[in-house]
Amino acid sequence: MDLMYYSYLDYIMRTVGREAQSMIDIGTASCPYLEWFDWIPERTSFDMAEPYESPAVQGVQGDFLEYDFSGKRYDIATCLQVLEHVPDVFPFARKLLEIADILIISVPFEWPKTAADDHVHDPINYRKLTRWMGRKANYRQVVKEPFRGAVGQRLIAIYEADESVSYGRKDFKDRIRRSRFPTAGDFA
Fold first, then answer.
1. Which residues pair with 37 in a beta bridge?
2. How far is residue 158's CA from residue 101's CA, in Å, rounded to a whole number?
3. What is the total count of domains within the chain?
4. Residues whose CB falls within 8 Å of the CB of residue 78, separated by 6 or more in sequence, listed in order
5. Considering the entire predicted model, what is its pTM?
6. CATH number reported for the structural domain that contains residue 127 in this entry
7. CB within 8 A of 162, min separation 6: which ones?
8. What are phi and psi of 7, to 5 degrees?
């Protein structure tokens, strides 16, 4: 939980997901980070083996490619450090785009092929991720972890249902100004 990319994820969620009413994370395992987003009333953890569950987070166990969402769309979906493990990655990635208005993905960025035994796609770069997704991201950022060498980078990408949305410096400032969290001054 002390990774820099979690700090980036938290900032991104508080910016683009500020008004979200529903969220799903694909491939959560038993990681509790969905608890951080407590302003989102409907939070779902989806995992093949061990979905995270709590009084505030619904756990769903199943095969993502086989699961029938019955037309359900979430305001925001996350899929963090999962795609590199998925053998049939093209349909998996495309299905992610179908279940949410905003999708946030992270993958190991340019890790060597030998970095992790359970990764089937290393090295991954933005070009490879774009092929998997079938489109460009609305925003992307490489996050570098200090002191981690060849396995110290992760690529975070945001996909909006509206492909024309951009996230430049001004765009994030505008979103924060429009949907910021209350500050002490708001209650004075």
1. none
2. 11
3. 1
4. 9, 13, 23, 24, 25, 26, 103, 104, 105
5. 0.88
6. 3.40.50.150
7. none
8. -65, -40
Q: What is the pLDDT of residue 109?
A: 97
Let me know: does 23 contact 44? Beta carbons within 8 Å.
yes
Q: Which domain holds residue 137?
A: 4-29+62-187
pLDDT digits (tens, 9 = 90+) for 113-150: 989 999 999 999 999 999 999 999 999 999 999 998 88
| Type of residue at 132 | W
What are the pLDDT digits (tens) for 33-91?
999 999 999 999 999 999 999 999 999 999 999 999 998 999 999 999 999 999 999 99
Amino acid identity at 188:
A
- State the Cα torsion 64-69-71-76 to the nearest 10°: -70
Does residue 103 or residue 181 have the better pLDDT? 103
- CA gap 156, 102 in Å, rounded: 13
Residue 39 lies inside a defined structural domain of this protein: no
- Is 38 within a domain? no
Point out which residues pair with 58 in neighbouring strands.
44
In a domain, 144, yes or no: yes
Q: What is the torsional sign of CA 125, 79, 82, 134? A: negative
Structure tokens at 177: 């100004």
